[in-house]
Amino acid sequence: MSERERSPRRGMCSAVLFLEAITLGLSTPVMIAVADVSPAVALPVGLGLALLSIVASGLLRAEWAYGLGWAIQGAAVVLGFLVTTMFFLGAVFALLWGSADLLGRKIERERAEAYARFDAEQA
């Protein structure tokens, strides 16, 4: 893969989603043992969001997948209604996601400008 094809935005956002998948997966036993949420609710919600995070991480080559990532951030915060700690953790991951998305866009924009200047100088 060439330097021009690497996407810092995709890499940073993917890392956030993978770390969040671990947190969401580990929220499942917390929901069951600590918050007394029924396993019939906790398993599909916690593990479903964890799996969705991993799948979304792989789909980040498509622009629409970043919208899915934002939806996962919202769901992680809403999970706080089942496990209060997730209000905090969801907000932290939403902040990380937003930072990765915005910083990644800035890096890619500046990189494209630098390559355009370089190509213009070589011509």
Characteristic terms for this protein:
single chain; about 120 residues; mainly alpha; about 80% helix; elongated
What can you see in these coordinates?
The structure is a single chain. With 123 residues, the protein is an all-alpha fold. Helices cover 80% and strands 0% of the residues. It is built from 4 helices and no strands. Helix 1 runs antiparallel to helix 2 (39-58) and helix 1 runs antiparallel to helix 4. The chain is elongated and about 65 Å long.
In a nutshell, what does this entry contain?
Helix content is 80%, strand content 0%. With 123 residues, it is mainly alpha-helical.
Distance between the termini: 24 Å
Count of extended strands:
0
As a whole number of angstroms, the C-alpha radius of gyration is 18 Å
The mean pLDDT is: 93
The major sheet is characterized as: none
The tally of helices reads 4
Q: Please identify the structural class as seen in this structure.
A: mainly alpha
H and E order: HHHH
The low-confidence parts are: none
Helical content (DSSP H or I, runs of 4+) = over 70%
> What portion of residues belong to β-strands?
under 5%
What would you call the shape?
elongated
